């Protein structure tokens, strides 16, 4: 087992809450990007840990959906629709994907991150969401939990594809 990349930078250990949470968000985004790096589109859609339906691209799409829903959807000025998971296809982020979806999905993930970063720059962690049902902090922690959980899956998928290990 080999890692193809040097270790990722963790946030400063004594950073304030905002720097710490946003630093971990950046860390986990980078970890997933590195799990996907240097793979072909066919490898990115490979379901390499049977019987699981997960693929690296499915995880990218799922985490794009999580940032869209929990951050853009709660911090933006208007209600939003799901990107990949409408009511009639709740697993559309993970199931039914193919290699032709790689570039648009990766581009959408990067765009989503930029949108979320701009929204987070305008809010305090203590601010309520647009609907007032949660704090910004709660939403950031929710998305961090999603990344942390799924980056473990990404490590297993990548290792099965080419032996590379992640964080």
Describe the 3D structure.
The protein contains 5 helices and no strands. The protein is an all-alpha fold and 167 residues long. The protein has a single domain (21-162), classed as Four Helix Bundle (Hemerythrin (Met), subunit A). The longest helix has 27 residues, at 136-162.
Any chance you could write out the topology, listing elements then pairs?
Layout: H1 17-36, H2 41-44, H3 56-75, H4 102-121, H5 136-162
Helix pairs in contact: 1-3, 1-5, 3-4, 3-5
Give the count of helical stretches: 5
CATH-level-4 superfamily name = dinb family like domain
Low-confidence stretches: none
- The count of domains is 1
* Helix content, binned percent: 40-55%
The Rg value, from CA coordinates, equals: 16 Å
How would you spell out the order of helices and strands?
Answer: HHHHH
Annotated CATH topology:
Four Helix Bundle (Hemerythrin (Met), subunit A)
CATH architecture identity:
Up-down Bundle
Task: Give a concise summary.
The chain is mainly α.
Keywords:
167 residues, mainly alpha, Four Helix Bundle (Hemerythrin (Met), subunit A), 5 helices
């Amino acid at each position: 087992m080999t890692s193809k990349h040097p270790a990722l930078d963790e946030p400063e250990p004594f950073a304030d809450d905002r720097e710490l949470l946003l630093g971990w968000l950046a860390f986990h985004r980078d970890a997933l990007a590195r799990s996907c790096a240097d793979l072909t589109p066919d490898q990115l859609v490979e379901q390499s840990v049977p019987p699981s339906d997960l693929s690296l691209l499915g995880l990218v799409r799922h985490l794009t959906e999580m940032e869209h829903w929990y951050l853009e959807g709660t911090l933006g000025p208007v209600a939003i629709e799901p990107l990949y998971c409408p009511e009639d296809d709740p697993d559309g982020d993970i199931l039914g994907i193919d290699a032709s979806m790689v570039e648009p999905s990766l581009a959408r993930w990067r765009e989503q991150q930029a949108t979320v970063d701009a929204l987070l720059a305008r809010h305090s962690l203590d601010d309520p969401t647009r609907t007032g049902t949660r704090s910004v902090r709660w939403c950031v922690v929710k998305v961090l939990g999603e990344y942390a959980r799924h980056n473990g899956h990404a490590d297993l998928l990548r290792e099965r594809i080419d032996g590379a290990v992640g964080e």
